[in-house]
């Protein structure tokens, strides 16, 4: 669902969790009775609400929910748990972290034994294919996709003399170059930062908008030669040098606090990030709206529910998956939280298309995000996509913070990636 840098304290807690299998909210330790189960999830996405709703609808079922940390911490804790043999019954895996687990399908329950092969047509082809091993095993069921859009502060745009109507705002930036120019106008008029940062709000959006990212369709690493990657990187460096960013890394404390204070007016926001804005800046309700992303289409994010091979209660975990991630279950979750379904049958449902979000000036979020997703040309996510992406983000952030040379940033990123993944 989201990126988050790993800190030693959080990672240590995550690793300790694999040995003790404790922590988190929820009820008593699963009993192995086939009904109760242990669930590891990310923090910050209100998973507790989904679990509570499921338990209300299924009396007698106890779910031991542990929010491990960010998506990276959760994947690292799972890796350690798989090596140590003590695993949860159910785990949420972020899309960029999934491929390395798909390469080892023997570590997970093949969900075809529970009927996943019969329902895979319920999901977007390119999404369910990411959790399907080459030998055919289905190790995960998708929970959501991100889509792309831009959340912006209408009050701050008005102060800068910019239009505030979402359609007019979308016309300001048909391209990323136009987005940067709009940022320059905003900063010149207000003396304040336009966008939170160049790394995630520009690079991570632009790089996810084309048909090829870090891997080619055959699975070969092409991050160093992909025109799409280089173009996205250059746009981010251009943004960093334009003096229009708040230089605040996504999901860190300063970024969250600045969101509520209006220290930046724009943030690239896949559907799941809208919940972050609600939680971090509750007093700004009605001051935000949602416009189209430059380029019009793309996807950032998405997660999967998987059952490790050694799970004590796999059937109970599957019941949770099958009920909460059905087309109806995902539609209900969108209406409740705004998480965009991976089930295309929901894309024409009036509940999705007609949903207006009062926090974001009644923006038709279902329509906006569905349109951005349907225009996407899918690309392959490989086993080292997360590590590759992180090094590009680091290089951009160093330039933004004045610690890196813009002229050398690309070569620095490539060298660090080669060190990180060995190729």
Q: What percentage of amino acids are in beta strands? A: 5-15%
**Major sheet strand order:** 2-1-3-9-4
Helix content: 40-55%
Order of helices and strands: HEHEHEHHHEEHHHEHHHEHEEHHHHHH
What is the general shape?
Answer: globular
Number of E-state strands: 9
Low-confidence stretches: 1-31
Query: How far is it from the N-terminal to the C-terminal residue, by CA?
Result: 27 Å
Structural class: alpha/beta
Q: How many helical stretches?
A: 19
Average of the residue pLDDT scores: 90
What kind of sheet is the major sheet? Answer: 5 strands, mixed
Task: Using the CA coordinates, give the radius of gyration.
Answer: 21 Å
Pfam family, one: SBP_bac_8
Signal peptide: 1-22
Keywords: Signal
InterPro entries: Bact_solute-bd_prot1, SBP
Description:
This is Extracellular solute-binding protein. This protein has 423 residues and is α/β, with parallel strands linked by helices. Helices cover 43% and strands 10% of the residues. The model is unreliable at 1-31 (pLDDT under 50).
Structure in a nutshell:
The chain has 423 residues and is of the alpha/beta class.
């Amino acid at each position: 669902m989201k990126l988050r840098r790993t800190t030693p304290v959080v990672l240590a807690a995550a690793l300790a969790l694999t040995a003790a299998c404790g922590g988190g909210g929820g009820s008593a330790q699963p009993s192995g009775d086939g009904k109760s189960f242990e669930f590891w999830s990310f923090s910050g996405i209100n998973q507790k609400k989904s679990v509570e709703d499921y338990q209300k609808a299924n009396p007698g079922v106890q779910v031991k929910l542990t929010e491990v940390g960010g998506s990276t911490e959760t994947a690292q804790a799972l890796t350690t748990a798989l090596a140590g043999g003590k695993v949860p019954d159910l785990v949420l895996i972020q899309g960029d972290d999934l491929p390395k687990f798909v390469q080892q399908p023997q570590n997970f329950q093949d969900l075809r034994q529970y009927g996943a092969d019969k329902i895979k047509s319920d999901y977007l082809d390119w999404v369910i294919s990411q959790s399907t091993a080459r030998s055919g095993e289905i190790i995960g069921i998708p929970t959501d996709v991100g889509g792309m859009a831009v959340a912006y502060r209408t009050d701050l745009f008005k102060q800068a003399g910019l239009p505030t109507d979402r359609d007019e705002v979308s016309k300001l930036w048909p391209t990323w170059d136009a987005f940067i120019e709009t940022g320059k106008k905003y900063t010149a008029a207000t003396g304040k930062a336009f966008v939170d940062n160049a790394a995630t709000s520009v690079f991570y959006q632009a790089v996810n908008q084309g048909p090829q990212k870090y891997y080619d369709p055959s699975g070969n690493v092409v991050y160093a030669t992909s025109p799409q990657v280089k173009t996205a990187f250059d746009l981010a460096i251009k943004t960093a040098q334009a003096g229009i960013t708040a230089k605040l890394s996504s999901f860190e404390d300063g970024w969250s606090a600045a969101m509520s204070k209006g220290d930046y007016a724009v943030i690239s926001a896949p559907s799941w990030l809208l919940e972050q804005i609600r939680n971090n800046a509750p007093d700004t309700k009605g001051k935000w709206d949602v416009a189209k992303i430059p380029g019009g289409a793309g996807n950032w994010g998405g997660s999967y529910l998987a059952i490790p091979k050694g799970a004590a209660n796999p059937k109970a975990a599957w019941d949770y998956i099958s009920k909460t991630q059905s087309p109806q279950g995902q539609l209900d979750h969108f209406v409740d939280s705004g998480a965009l379904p991976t089930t295309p049958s929901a894309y024409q449902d009036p509940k999705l298309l007609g949903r207006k979000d009062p926090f974001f000036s009644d923006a038709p979020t279902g329509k906006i995000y569905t349109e951005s997703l349907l225009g996407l040309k899918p690309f392959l996510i490989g086993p080292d996509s997360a590590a590759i992406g992180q090094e590009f983000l680091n290089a951009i952030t160093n330039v933004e913070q004045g610690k890196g040379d813009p002229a050398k940033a690309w070569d620095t990123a490539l060298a660090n990636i080669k060190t990180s993944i060995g190729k």
